[in-house]
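To whoever is on call:

I kicked off a structure prediction for a single chain this morning and the downstream step that reads the tokens threw a length-mismatch warning. I double-checked the sequence; it's 94 residues and nothing unusual in it as far as I can see. Pasting both halves so you can look.
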Amino acid sequence: MFATVATIKVKDGAEEQFLTLAKELAVAVKANEPGCQSYQICTGETARTYYIVERYEDTAAADAHRNSAHVKAMLEQAAPLLDGPPDILRLSEV
């Protein structure tokens, strides 16, 4: 199993618009990516910071996610809302 945690910081006032895009992406992932075991949008203690926690069958499924049209479209739409680039942590389950 392969997991990814994306930490995404958004600009002040962009939270609602970003969350709308993120939720639309989650629907597209669940509908189009059979190798994705789970895709969760989370918040934590830091304001304007979102965590996308993803689990995939394998690295090939994670690669397919990153290269999908729906991910590329969301990243393009979200770019003006972000306060810096996303921090991506890739993990292998043991």
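Update from on-call: the warning came from a stale cache, not from the record. Cleared it. Sanity check on the structure: The chain has one domain: 2-92.
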